[in-house]
Design a protein that fits this description.
CATH topology of one domain: Rhopdopsin 7-helix transmembrane proteins
Largest sheet: 2 strands, antiparallel
Structural class: mainly alpha
Distance between the termini: 94 Å
Radius of gyration: 34 Å
Number of helices: 17
Low-confidence stretches: 1-10, 320-335, 341-349, 371-389
Shape: globular
CATH superfamily of one domain: Rhodopsin 7-helix transmembrane proteins
Order of helices and strands: HHHHHHHEEHHHHHHHHHHEE
Strand content: under 5%
Number of strands: 4
Length: about 400
Amino acid sequence: MPGFHIRVGTLIDLPILMFAGGAIGNLIAIIVLSVSKQERKSSAFYALVRGLAVTDLLGTCLASPLTIANYLDRQVLMDRHVCQFHSFLLLFFGLAGLSIICAMAAERYLAICCPYTYQRWGVDRRFAQKFLLFIYISHIFFCCLPMMGMASSELQPSGTWCFIDWRTQKPLATAYSVLYGAVSVLLILGTIVLNLAVCGALLLMRQRTVQRPVTRGSVRQRWMALSSAAETQMIAVLVTTSAVVLGCSAPLVVRVFANCFMTNHEHEADLAAIRIASANPILDPWIYILLRRSLFRRLLSLSRRGSSICNSIRSSSPPTPKRNLVSPELKTVDNNQLTQIKTDRSCCKPVFLLSSFLTGALPAEIVIYLFFGEELSCNGFQMSQKYRQ
């Protein structure tokens, strides 16, 4: 399809930028997660988060160089073994990301809705690492099936990526395409259901907390423990990451079923789906970076500080009618007048002001200004409002 090949030809800048964004972002995310507090390092949830960041980094560093090399030399992906390897990478890292995000949702569900089972199973960092190893081994075997003869990989019409032959009429190859799509759909649905269950459980606990009286060991104490800053951050990371991963993976899953069961093939839609899926490793790490507890605390403190400054300015600013009583040039007096104000301030205020006005020590505007109790600053000396009547 030479016409299609020319029409979708893309500059090499795009894959290079995507490669740089995915590699740098995931490296920063891994560093941020590695220098976190000890309790976060030992939690199963953040072990899965680090596993997802490492998976995205590996996928970016392995698949993107092949794509860039193919832009430089269109013969790279025409090699059968290279094309099979590129197809394996796309299959494996696409499915592994969905599996890890589903495992993150399951971990939060067990921790919040089934705490006894969570403790009995001993879900911790080591448990999460073993589960990640299980995901990698099982997915490597499953994604190697096309290279074992169950299906075939082919260069897609755009000439920039390889994937399974999802338009074949062979029953075994079609069965693998459907199986891959079905597993992806189950992972997507499982993640959505678990996230809804976690959010629903938290809302239900909150509703019970409001309705029941406060007693020792009541539901309110459990809610306060579950709605702590760390728990809130975990839920925020989970929901946001799930939305990004599912949003980026769903179009490719839809195209898998569409190419298996539809006769008209939309190659441009296939290319758009794989590009959206390739954006997932770029977006994921910035969720971990931006949704940090320290950043939450800083934003909260900045907002509180800004509101307190605004309130103090409003409370300390004098009313508009009184502010205009004295012109700016009359709000300063010389040192002799300042000394006289200091020595005579023990007198009664009306008598002091009247004598100052009659003797010409102070202008009429200053007398009026002091009579109404405004603050006066002159050469470092501030007349306090304690001299008001």
